[in-house]
Amino acid sequence: MTDRYFLWMAFIFYVGASALTLWRLRNNRSQSSLHHINVILIVVGFLMQLVGLILRGQNLHRCPLTNPFEVTVFIVWALVLFYLVIGPSYRVSFLGAFTAPVVTLILLTGLLTASDAPHAPVLKHSPWVEFHAGIGILACGAFALAFVVAAMDLVQNRQLKSHHPSPTFRLLPSVEQLDIIGVRLLMLGFILLTVGMIGGVISDKLVEAWPWQKVAWAWTTWLVYAALLAARTIGNWRGRKASAATMTAFVFLLSAYWGTSWLVR
Amino acid sequence: MNLVIIGLNHCSAPVAIRERVAFPRAQLGAATCELLGAAPVAEVAILSTCNRVEIYALAADAGQATQALRRYLHSYHKLTESIDAHLYERHNRDCIAHLLNVVCGLDSMVLGETEILGQVKDAYAAAQTAGATGAALNRLFQKAFAAAKHIRTATAITRGSTSVANVAVELAEKIFRDLTQSTVMVIGTGAMSEATAKALRSRGAGSILVCGRDRERSGALAGQLGGRAIHYDDWPVEFPKVDIVISATASPHPIVTREKLVPLMKERHQRPLFLIDIGVPRDIETACDELENVYVYNMDDMQQIAKENLAAREREIAICRELIAERVTRLAEWLEERYK
How far apart are CA B48 and CA B181, in angstroms? Predict the structure, then answer.
């Protein structure tokens, strides 16, 4: 069985979790049994994805981060990893339910559109390069979960401001809790991104000069998140606009990555 | 053997009757023991709340048993006039269905309320301690508790607050991470602001400030709520520290305006602010709600939410009844099989 088989299997489990989410939101159901089914579907999807990535890694004899397809799959995997680590510790109701559709959408985009050129390695085989790429992907996972939390915050804020909240309002956490988690995820992602950037600068000097498009993308992303984090912590930026900006930053990160990868190709 | 119930509730009897036949909690056990000797029943349990008094029993002759239970109610409470017209009776299958409806809150004054489950549990525990329950009532009550638990999670019958005060609490819980860290300010004392502040306090609201023109009244309310009374003119000084404001003044003009709020929000680092406007005319300028992280709700908003929540609960009744019917059939079959 090929790695793609496992990735498609993972996709099917994430679709199942997303369908369950939509059903729960539609029918206003918050039973713990349904929550457990949701988590199980996501965990099985995560494991399938892990098997897929391991198979691909064995095939390539290196960390599978050589093309946009692999990077996209890895970002999705890191997002689910953060959800599985952070979700239980903060006890955020419906975080998994909101994570599932985002995971499904990004993975589907990766599976259908991202370039998966098997014999055109963009990166040289070096521990510095792999450190840079791996930590960078983890940062993207944290930013992706911050995107999910920001989406939940927007929905909850909209409900509260409407003055006639729908039953969904009862299923979601408080806006203050979502704000705190969002900022912490941004901080975590930014620290990881900075460490990854340092790895990138070292590999640029020691291993191979990166294409300028990639360098520009990386620094722009770093600056965007630095500004966003400063605004949300020092500038006390909270609420709908802050959440919308967090979501926009992640959309920029993904689209700029895909765009620069296409340019480099 | 037959399962029987005799009782009255908020639909069948006015409060003047209900209060006369209520059993004090401390006397439930003794009354249950007394009933075992006074009526031809094998098992018995008394449920007594502010809205209902019901006696559940297992008896060989249902007719004789209910007559004896009626007599007992009159004699125990020393009633001079008959309350028979207010009493209802249910037998076997109907008795099982009635208890299941009661524990699920379908027969309550506030549809879907959950307090009744605890009250029925207390009644059952008292009867058990008095040695008045056996196989039939044990099974009936335990199955009823299991049904209530299942129906609570499988349907939305208990979801959404149906009183204005609880709607305010529910909204506060969706704005703030932890109510115990929140400070509540009550501006102007009145029945509604008092009820809302009490509801917030009961859910653990951190500290409460009461400010009113009448120092004595605000002091008394602050004492009741375990809070602090402040002078009416001092509320703008305390305002930046406050997270939830319940405003119910008689002021002819809004006392909280957008203009005043903008610098205050900066001072509180844009932390969320929940403004509950109970005043008529309104105390809080509508434009305040346009500000980021400020949530303004007035009486109409909260009454509308309470009404919608009640309507949503009513829509769940049919599902609950279906779930109850399945369990009633199983329990009735068991009862028939055991005592045929």
Answer: 38
B50 in active site: yes
Phi-psi region of A94 (alpha: psi -120 to 50; beta: other; left: phi over 0): left
Comparing alpha-carbon positions, the chain A residue that sits nearest to B266 is A236
Pick the closest to residue B205 from B233, B173, B229 (CA basis). B173
What is the model's pLDDT at position B244? 93
3-state per-residue secondary structure call for B317-336: HHHHHHHHHHHHHHHHHHHH
Choose the mutation target among A236, A241, A243 for the interface with B, i.e. most B CBs under 10 Å.
A236
Position A119 pLDDT exceeds 50 = no
Q: What is the distance between the alpha carbons of residues A26 and A167, in angstroms, rounded to a whole number?
A: 9
B159 and A169: CB-CB below 8 Å? no
pLDDT 10s digits, B131-147: 888 888 999 999 999 99
Tokens of A122: 């963009």
User: Alpha carbon B24 to chain centroid distance?
Assistant: 19
Whether pLDDT at A123 is above 60: no
Q: What is the mean pLDDT of chain B?
A: 88
- Residue B316, amino acid: E
Q: Specify the residue for token string 């997303």.
A: A18
Kindly state the average pLDDT of the residues B316-323.
89
B contact residues 158-187, partner A, Cβ 8 Å cutoff: 159-160, 170-171, 173-177
User: Is B80 or A88 the better-scoring residue by pLDDT?
Assistant: B80
Count of alpha carbons within 13 Å of B282, Cβ hemisphere only? 16
Task: Using DSSP, state whether A165 is helix, strand or coil.
Answer: coil
| Tokens matching residue A67 | 């093309």
